[in-house]
Amino acid sequence: MLDLGIAGRKAIVCAASKGLGRACAMALSRAGVAVTITARTVEALEQTAAGIHAATGNKVTVVAGDITTEAGRQATLAACPQPDILVNNAGGPPHGDFRDWGLDEWNKAVNANMLTPIMLIKATVDGMCERKFGRIVNITSASVKSPIPILGMSNGARAGLTGFVAGLARQVARHNVTINNLLPGPFLTDRLRSGIEFEARKQNVSFEEMLEKRSASNPTGRVGDPEEFGAACAFLCAKASGFIVGQNLLLDGGAFNSTMG
Q: Which residues are CB-contacts of 17 (< 8 A; sequence separation ≥ 6)?
């Protein structure tokens, strides 16, 4: 296995009980990082922690709570007050038509997918700068580059985070602190399943038919494996990745058709 040079470092990985967050926590643990994982459902979180520890032999700290609340963030930071690595992640807003969403829905989406990552960055980035090492990875969405009509709240909130990060990343890079974004396309997670179910109902077809159709439309002929996403996250957190600053790495199997990515 490639040595990423981060063994012994400490990481906070948000929304890590399943899906892409879990994959990132697993990849970092395989690289020798002591991970603190958060999620709202304690049973799923503890099961994930046990699985990561069994696979890697490394320490996993569990913090059950809602990272989109101040109390949830404080509990996580109390468990890992000086993280070297922060992976921001939160469940995406619901699918639908923007005409059906009111201010409460928008506030919840912006809080989860823009303000919560910013608050966690605010709480950790200065310490990283003082220690001359930090890696912050925000899990956003391919919709930041190519908007998805049924994900209007995600399109807006995550694009806002992307704009904020673009400025801050250039301010802290001189301290060997990098901030980058990972933009997932179709990975086989619960989030993808819910989207496929939504479209399947609209088109009156089965889930399996819609998944096959979705896979066939991708240049790779498939959807992504979360393990691939975790590996990309660990790469951005590597010791040797200090010259990658303020980037938006799109992992979508080539679905976004552009000469320059």
A: 37, 39, 41, 44, 45, 47, 48
Rounded CA-CA distance 181/236 in Å is: 9
- In Å, how far are 146, 151, 206 from 28, measured between CA atoms? 28, 29, 36
Q: Are 139 and 20 in contact (CB under 8 A)?
A: yes
pLDDT tens-digit map of 45-57: 999 999 999 999 9
Q: What is the pLDDT of residues 209-260, one digit of tens each?
A: 999 999 999 999 999 999 999 999 999 999 999 999 999 999 999 999 999 8
Please check whether residue 248 is in contact with residue 144, taking contact to mean a CB–CB distance below 8 angstroms. Answer: yes
Instruction: Estimate the crossing angle of helix 152-172 against helix 116-131, to 10 degrees.
Output: 20
Radius of gyration for the alpha carbons in the chain, expressed in angstroms and rounded: 18
User: Left if phi > 0, otherwise alpha if psi is -120 to 50, otherwise beta: which for 164?
Assistant: alpha
pTM of the model: 0.93
Determine the straight-line distance between the first and last CA of the chain, rounded to whole angstroms: 28
DSSP per residue, 106-168: HHHHHIIIIIHHHHHHHHHHHHHHHHT-EEEEEE--GGGTS--GGGHHHHHHHHHHHHHHHHH
> Strand, helix or coil at 84?
coil
CB 218 within 8 A of CB 254: yes
> What's the helix, strand, coil split of the chain in %, to 5?
50, 15, 35
Beta bridge partners of 12: 36, 86
Q: How many CB atoms lie within 10 A of CB 9?
A: 21
